[in-house]
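Record 1 of the preview.
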Amino acid sequence: MFTTYPCIIRLPDSLENLIAYEDTAMTNLAQFPDRRSFLKSSAVAAAGLSGLTMETELAWSEDADVNIIGPKAGYSPQVGTLVSMMTWMRMVVLMSVKGMTQKDLDYLFDPHANTIGALLLHLAATETYYQLHTFGGMKWDSWPDSVKQKWDVPMNLGEPARKAIKGNSLDYYLDILKETREKTLAEFRKRDDSFLMIADKDFFGGPTNNYCKWFHVCEHESNHNGQVKFLAKRLPGAKPDSE
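->
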């Protein structure tokens, strides 16, 4: 049995309406008197192709509306949409570790595994480094030594993390995750959608824009949430898997 999470994504009301709109736009190109009019209409059509509707006013949701993916009050439209995805994913991670004890968080499944506590701190480390990189404009891995001393161990995991990250309560990790996320949200509120479109041609693997970098922060949590759930099912005394 799989756990389901209700989620609302704002899409066009019908595919037929979208196709009809695009057909109208394409057949009436000759009616545009100048390049600016053409570009404005093309932008509307492109937005339709991407699955977004161009409305006079967007439907903004509040922070508490975690199951609505889309623009959020206090952010530009695309930034808010990204924030809504990150918020939803964080909720799922927190559900996975709810009620865990220090012993649970320190449990090492095998000599090559990571503990759940280390994985939680790894999420905070990753988000911190992307803050420095995208908000602070720092080249990757050019952080001050004081930052590396605090975050390199959880960022890189492995044997150093197995030795160093232990003996902490769940609240310890949750407080760090919360503090790190609040910094991210504060920075996002200062920026508009153009920030997400800034491309870095030298980033790992080739040109990458800030939208992709921060989407990675989101999907990165999904990846490690799978590991957390795997480890949680194998904790001493864990209930048999009924899924």
